[in-house]
Write a structure and sequence with these properties.
70 residues; mainly alpha; 4 helices; 51% helix; 9% strand; globular
Length: 70
């Protein structure tokens, strides 16, 4: 299974926020934002911060999707 943060990016659009805004409010490094952008794992601490900032639940931020094994 792979991680997808597509729901989080859609939620940002709905809240009229930019990635830069999220980064500043989370107080995380650019590396964390890059990992999110590439659907790579981040710490649960970071996911918790995202949920607090966006006022949502973990299922609104990320999901597990089947991996493409081509």
């Amino acid at each position: 299974m792979a991680i997808s943060y597509d729901k989080m990016w859609k939620l940002l659009i709905d809240k009229k926020m930019k990635r830069k805004d999220l980064k500043e409010r989370l107080h995380v490094s650019q590396n964390v934002m890059v990992r999110l952008g590439h659907d790579e794992p981040v710490s649960m601490d970071t996911v918790e911060k995202i949920c607090k900032v966006l006022e949502c639940n973990i299922g609104d931020v990320m999901e597990f999707v089947p991996e493409n094994n081509n």
